């Protein structure tokens, strides 16, 4: 279950509570509720502050709203347990079968996993000064917005919006929102780094931070985050090739003890949506680093060792490795960076 799926589950519980009279009928159901990882001291896989968000309109204390929502969320498919913590946070633990569904969703959607329609019906025009960093940033932001269902007009260098322009070719036309991108210009000549390293140097820092210098970006070691991300992808592909030689077909049949990696894969859709909303490709880059680190800590357990015979556990681990490589490739593609199968 992805954060987007879980948000819909919580909203469904809110609508049920209103319809059943547990929350007063005038309570306005929001378009979306926030889903995040539990804060320090929290429990479960995910947490939401929906009860705090609804308390004022419901005319109840947040803890009371949480008590209304908890059983309605808990009975949804894929939910194992819901706990109330603090002033009314709902901490949600997913059932094991939801992890199976997560891996299947990644493998079904491939590099489009995490793409959605959160911004469908929204139109944007990207405006930037035209220097190399601003141009690369605009390309990545455009890709992120499109991946969330938005319509994006061609970028114009510091152009003023045309007041008569509409959402071209779309039945629900809306006036485009002008987004001005002004990252700090790069002070180094990144052209010598090659396309992939140059884009990483320009996109990995936040727009208000300086672009990365060339030192270390061409080094093939764990000290180079770009190399680590691409190496992790190539290792995932290598495991699939080696598994095929051993006659192991990836299939997520039983739960795998890889909480960091599963959490990173589950976070991917929320990261892409947040990166699009905030026009921040650096969020994607940081998430890819975290996913790569989690995968590289897990990779040594995937295939049989020595005389060990292939089993359902190996098929499941191989499926998880394939899912990790898929997420890494999809994230790099949104940044305009290649994901080679061999490094």
Notes on the structure:
The radius of gyration is 22 Å and the shape is flat. The model is unreliable at 161-173 (pLDDT under 50). A three-stranded antiparallel beta sheet has the order 1-3-2. Strands 5-4-6 form a three-stranded parallel beta sheet, covered by helices on one side. Helices cover 46% and strands 10% of the residues. It is mainly alpha-helical. The chain has ten helices and six strands; from the N terminus they run H-E-H-H-E-E-H-E-H-E-E-H-H-H-H-H. The chain has helices spanning 3-19, 50-58, 62-74, 96-109, 132-147, 195-203, 225-245, 259-277, 281-298, 312-334; strands spanning 46-48, 79-85, 89-94, 123-128, 151-157, 177-180.
In short:
By secondary structure, this protein is mainly α. Helix content is 46%, strand content 10%. It has a three-stranded antiparallel beta sheet with strand order 1-3-2. Strands 5-4-6 form a three-stranded parallel beta sheet, with helices on one face.
Quick tags:
three-stranded parallel beta sheet, 343 residues, 10 helices, mainly alpha, 6 strands
Low-confidence stretches: 161-173
Average pLDDT for all residues: 89
Topology order in helix (H) and strand (E) letters: HEHHEEHEHEEHHHHH
Tell me what portion of residues adopts beta-strand conformation: 5-15%
Fraction of residues in H or I helices: 40-55%
Shape: flat
Counted beta strands: 6
Major sheet description = 3 strands, antiparallel
**Class based on secondary structure composition and strand pairing:** mainly alpha
The whole-angstrom Rg is: 22 Å
| Spatial strand sequence of the major β-sheet | 1-3-2
Number of helices: 10
Q: End-to-end distance, in Å? A: 33 Å
């Amino acid at each position: 279950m992805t954060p987007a799926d879980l948000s819909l589950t919580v909203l469904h519980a809110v609508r049920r509570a209103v319809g059943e009279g547990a929350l007063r009928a005038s309570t306005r159901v929001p378009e979306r509720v926030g889903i995040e990882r539990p804060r320090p001291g929290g429990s479960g896989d995910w947490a939401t502050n929906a009860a705090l968000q609804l308390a004022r309109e419901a005319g109840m204390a947040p803890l009371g709203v949480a008590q209304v929502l908890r059983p309605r969320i808990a009975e949804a498919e894929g939910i194992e347990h819901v706990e109330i913590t603090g002033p009314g946070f709902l901490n949600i633990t997913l059932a094991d079968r939801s992890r199976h569904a997560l891996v299947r969703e990644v493998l079904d959607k491939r590099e489009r996993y995490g793409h959605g329609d959160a911004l469908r019906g929204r139109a944007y025009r990207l405006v930037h000064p035209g220097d190399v960093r601003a141009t690369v940033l605009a390309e990545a932001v455009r890709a992120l917005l499109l991946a969330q269902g938005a319509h994006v007009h061609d970028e114009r260098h510091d152009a003023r919006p045309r007041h008569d322009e509409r959402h071209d070719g779309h039945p629900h036309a809306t006036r485009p929102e002008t987004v001005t991108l002004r990252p700090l210009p790069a002070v180094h000549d990144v052209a010598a780094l090659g396309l992939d390293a140059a884009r990483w140097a320009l996109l990995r820092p936040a727009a208000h931070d300086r672009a990365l210098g060339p030192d270390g970006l061409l080094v093939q070691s764990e000290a180079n985050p770009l190399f680590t991300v691409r190496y992790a992808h190539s290792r995932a592909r290598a495991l699939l090739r080696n598994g095929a030689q051993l006659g192991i077909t990836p299939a997520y049949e039983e739960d795998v003890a890889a909480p960091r990696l599963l959490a990173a894969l589950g976070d991917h859709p929320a990261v892409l949506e947040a990166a699009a909303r905030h026009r921040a490709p650096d969020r994607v880059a940081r998430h890819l680093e975290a996913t790569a680190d989690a995968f590289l800590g897990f990779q040594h357990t995937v295939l049989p060792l020595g005389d060990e015979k292939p089993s359902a556990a190996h098929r499941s681990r191989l499926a998880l490795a394939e899912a990790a490589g898929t997420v890494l490739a999809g994230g790099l593609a949104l940044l305009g960076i290649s994901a080679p199968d061999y490094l």
